[in-house]
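Field: COMPLEX_INPUT
Field: COMPONENT_COUNT = two
Field: RESIDUE_TOTAL = 347
Field: MODE = joint
Values follow.
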Amino acid sequence: MGISLLVHETKGEEEIELLDLEEAIKRAKAQYGIEGIITGAIESTYQASRIQKICNTLDIECFNPLWQKDQFKLLEDLIQNKFEVVIVAAAAYPLDASWLGKKMDLEFIRQIKPLHEKYRINPAGEGGEFETFVLDCPMFKNGLKILNTRIVSIDNNHRMEVTVG
Amino acid sequence: MILVVNVCFEKLHYFEFVKPIEDILRNGGLEYSTIHYIQVSEKYLALADRIIICGTSLKDDDFLKKIEEFSWINNIIKPVLGICAGMHVIGLQFEGELENETEIGFYEESFSSFLGLNDSEQVYHLHNNYIDFFHLNEFEVFSKGRIPQAVKHRDKELYGILFHPEVRQKSLILNFCSKNNL
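Field: COMPLEX_OUTPUT
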């Protein structure tokens, strides 16, 4: 995409991770002069409100362009706009290791819909039910190819580590 | 037709503060038309049955610099609902003053018979300011806390809410648009 990337590590501990995020945004503001943050928050007020607070403290804009969007419509939009997305982690029953590597396509929507209705699995995975990896999208200069995968399962948490090229 | 008024300075904020309101109206089978507040004219106001003035981002105060663009509120006899920033502009037309108070996220608020709200509700807040409608004689306050959350003009159908109903109180929008207003 030709956009600078800033990497900031966190241990992912609840609430402490927000201080890490604030630190990362401070660094981005200092190094690159960013004037705002764009998030992918759809329904998660937990995510949205915390990032809003950080942006408010740092006096930068906060944009949530997917806010309250119908999540199945969002998936359809991604497919229509040729996003190539694969599932790389599953962490909510009844999702299991068989979901790893699945493409987000019309078949995925057909399969996730009954799980949304019966188990309230969030179709966009916003609750952490699953994680995704974008291999290609209209903003990429070149798409990525998965060269190698390694599946790690611990209890009901399954992840697919990928090597891409 | 419901006239939806966008007060956002940044175009990208339309998706966060205006489109969710449009979606509620569309899903409710209601006809609507959206314009930016700078474009509001007698022609649009004449076509509208009801008017909703949407909110905007925490950092956006551009609409406050052009508050005269909302002077039509003083003379309108049609129902108007102001959401957050929309509530601010209604209050400012009646010489209310902005007070500072930052509230972000879910808060428990209590209401009394206001567009379907009758009790305690978790509402989503996103504001740095509010207007103390308790000091505006023209308005009645329908919430119980220190900061007015829901107000209505005593003689006109001018409604204001400080919270964002598109998150947890979608029916409030439809109640405002219904003829009986509950």
